[in-house]
Every structure is written in C-alpha cells, then in structure tokens.
Design a protein that fits this description.
The protein has helices spanning 4-18, 27-40, 46-54, 59-66, 78-93, 109-124, 141-149, 167-170, 189-192, 228-240, and strands at residues 97-102, 131-138, 151-153, 171-175, 183-187, 195-199, 214-219, 242-250, 263-267, 270-273. The N and C termini lie far apart (46 Å). The chain is built from ten helices and ten strands. The structure holds S-adenosylmethionine.
Length: 277
C-alpha cells in the first residue's frame, strides 16, 4: 500500500496534468494504477517514479495511467439515431456542410460511429454531396494511437452495432496474430481518412478552434472526471466553438450546468444552443 503522502502527490499530479479529480474513495484504484505505472517504467521505487513525474518526465505515460478509457461503438445509441435522423438531414437541406468535434475520443469507437452514421444517413437521403469533417481529440496519447490505427476485435467490440450498420462495409478482417479462431477488424481507409485525431487537454486555457466553428459537439462521459468549476469552464470553452442552433451531446450522467439558460433540451442529453453565453 502507498502512504497518504504518496497518494496525495498522485492526486496533485493527476489534477495538474489532466484536471482529473481522484477522490479519497479511489485509493485502491490509484494504488493499482501506480503498480502498473511502476512496472511500465521498470522502477519499483514509487518515490523515485513520482519525483521523475514532478520534474516533468513521463507525463503522457502518467496521464495515460490515470485516464479511464471505457467506450464502445454506438454507446448511448440514441445520439447516433438523432445524428442520422435530424442533424444530417438538416445539414443536407440547408448548408450542405457538417463540422463535428468529438472531444474525448478514447480508442476511436465514438468518432468511427459518428462517421458510419453520417455515411448511412447520406445514403438514406440519397445525397453524396454533404461536405462533412470530424476532429477527434483526447488527452491520452496511447488511446489516440489505438484510434488512428483503427484495429478492433470482432465480436467483443462490435456486438453493439445497430441493425442499420453492416460492419463489412466499414471494416476489413485481419487474422489475429496469436489466436486462429478470432478475428480483428481494421477500419477501412475510406472511413479513417475522414477523421483527424489530435492530442488535446480539455483543461487547456483555450482551444485551437474558431468561435462558432462546429455544428455538433460530442462531449460524453468525460466531464464526470472533473470538479464542477472545471466542468463549467470546459463547457463554456466548448460552447463558444459551437454555432447557434448547433447540438451538444453529453454523457448519460452529465448536464450542461451553467449553460442551461443558453440551451434547449431536445432529447436525452441532447442540447441545442439557442444563444451565445
Ligand atoms: C470514459 S472515456 C469516454 C469516451 C467516449 N467519449 C465515450 O463516451 O464512450 C473518457 C475519455 O476522456 C479522456 N480524458 C480524460 N481527461 C481528459 C482531458 N483533460 N482532456 C481530454 N480528454 C480527457 C480520457 O483519456 C478518456 O479517453
């Protein structure tokens, strides 16, 4: 077990480098992740490991150890139904353009679900001219590498696909290097080329986007890791990059907090921007 002082140093480092708040009831989780971190850095002395990180070394590795990357394809599927049935349809009928930002992309399942949905909707509305773009960011370099590589396990990762998606259209099969019976699937280049993955910390004082740049922002299942003041600050920065009339999707236990007077609730954790903050 680690001492209260060591755990406090970890809490401080996690907050400084990612904004993630590790509460006192997370001590077992912190300890497990520190064990892994020590193994990864091949150094059994936790004080030495923490001192290295406090000096600014191995920051990406440290952050990666304390992020929770749980995600899956078409998670909270009603958001993808809304994207298909309302947003793409509207974009086709109006500007012919759709700019989307996915702010906690993790290993890529969410941004690829967005792209598959847009493709299906374009076919549904018989429109191949919609000009769409997707930027997907995450603080964790390791998950971004996984995302841009685009390799997933068939079955384990694809059980939640809705009936209107055919995996073979978007993924090619690859043999598993070790197990004969299992398959990996790799996102086809045509889909992969439509997303730009970038490392970005949502706690950064400003974001590299223009005001009112996006029609849609996905910010799902990431605010829960921050304290309420930081959630509000992140929401405000994201909101300034969303067009009036644009849509913000939040995760199932997240809310727009201070933005509430500036949005209209359209559905389950679906918020439309009605005016500037
Ligand atoms: C639980 S996953 C959610 C993934 C996806 N949005 C979903 O709903 O399935 C949370 C993600 O937030 C990322 N994250 C945590 N802190 C962050 C920060 N300060 N800036 C950007 N991303 C962060 C983590 O690396 C992780 O991949």
């Amino acid at each position: 077990m680690y001492s209260p002082r060591q755990l406090e140093r970890v809490r401080k480092l996690a907050y400084t480098h990612s904004g993630i708040t590790l509460s006192a009831n997370k001590d077992v989780m912190i300890s497990n992740r520190l064990d892994k971190l020590k193994r990864f850095l091949e150094n059994e002395n936790i004080d030495e490991v923490l001192a290295l990180i406090e000096r600014g070394e191995h920051i990406d590795t440290f952050v990666s150890a304390f992020t929770t990357n749980k995600t899956n394809f078409f998670r909270e599927s009603f958001h993808f139904e809304d994207l298909k049935d309302r947003i793409v349809k509207q974009a086709i009928e109006t500007s012919g353009e759709l700019k989307i930002y996915c702010s906690a992309a993790s290993t890529g399942e969410e941004p690829y679900s967005i792209l598959m949905t847009i493709q299906e909707a374009k076919e549904l509305y018989d429109n191949s001219f919609l000009n769409h773009s997707l930027i997907a960011t995450d603080i964790d370099k390791q998950v971004l590498d996984h995302a841009s590589n685009g390799v997933y396990e068939l079955g384990r990762n694809t059980d939640d696909f809705p009936s209107w998606i055919k995996p073979s259209k978007y993924f090619k099969r690859r043999n598993h290097p070790n197990k004969d019976a299992e398959y990996l699937i790799k996102v086809k280049d045509a889909l992969r080329s439509k997303v730009r993955f970038e490392q970005m910390n949502l706690m950064s004082p400003s974001y590299p986007f223009k005001p009112n740049e996006f029609d849609v922002i996905f910010c799902r299942n990431v605010l829960i890791y921050f304290n309420q003041d930081d959630q509000n600050n992140i929401l405000k920065k994201l909101f300034s990059t969303l067009k009036v009339g644009g849509t913000l999707y939040l995760g199932h236990s997240e809310s727009p907090l201070g933005l509430t007077p500036y949005v209209e609730r359209f559905g389950q954790n679906i918020f439309i921007k009605t005016k500037e903050f």
